[in-house]
Please model this.
Amino acid sequence: MKYRKIYMKNSIYWIAVGLCVLVIAWKLVTILGYDIEYHRSDQVYEQLAAMTTEEIGDNAVKKDGEASDCTSDEREWMIPSEKLKQINPDYVGWLRLPGTGIDYPVVQGKDHEFYLDHLFDGTKNKAGCLFLDVGNRSDFSSCNSIIYGHYMKNKSMFYELSFYKEASWWKEHPEFQLILPDRQARLVVFSAYVADVQENAWQIDFESQEAYENWMKDRKERSLFQPDQEIGIPDSVVTCSTCSYEFENARFVVHMAVYWDKETT
Model:
C-alpha cells in the first residue's frame, strides 16, 4: 500500500511536469510564430518602401543624364502608383509620417475584414495592411476619410499613432503626407483622443455643412491637446484609427485637416 502511494505521487508529479513542458513548448511555438509573421510583414513593407526610394532615385536624374532640378521636398512625394496597382489593384494611396515608421501603402477592400490579417501583397499575416473604410470614396473626397491600422507590438503599422497622446510628439510631428496616384495632400493634425467605438468619430458624410461644422467643433473639444495654429473648417478630414486599451472597445483616433497640394500627373 505504501509503495502504491509513492507510485501515485510520482505519477502525479511527472504528469504535472509533462503538462508544464507542453505549456512552455506551446508558448515558445506561439512566440516563434509571431516572430516569423512580424519578420515577414517587415520584409514586405520594407520592399515596398524601397520601391519609393528607387522611384526617387530614378527621377533625380533627367533622361539626358543631367541632374534633375526637382527639390528634395518634391522627391519625397514620388510614389510608383502604377507599380503598386499592379501588385494590388486595391491600392488607393500612400500614407507617410515623416521621421517615423509610418510609411505604408493604403488599400480599400470589399469589407473591413480581409486586410485585418492580410498584407499588401495578399499574404495572410496578423500585421495586416492600412485600409480605407469601405464607405469612403477612394479618391479621399468624402468629408471624413478613415484609415484603419493595427497597433502592433513590434512597433509597426499604427503603433506610433498612439504617441499623439503626448503633446511633445504632436509638436514634433504636426503633419502627415498622403500621396494618391494623381495628387497629394498635407494632413495637418488638429485632434487626437481615445474614443469608444459607439462614438461618431468615424462618421463619413454629413447631411449639411452645419452638421459637418458641429462635428468638427466636437472633435476639437474632444482633443487631448490643441495645435499650435488654429485650424478652421477644411473641405475634408482624414482620420487614422487604431486599437487602444484604456477600456473595452477603446480606439485611438487622430483627425487631420486635408490640404491638397500639386497634381502628380
Remarks:
- The CA atoms of residues 60 and 69 lie 8 Å apart.
- The chain has one domain: 45-263.
- DSSP finds five helices and eight strands in the chain.
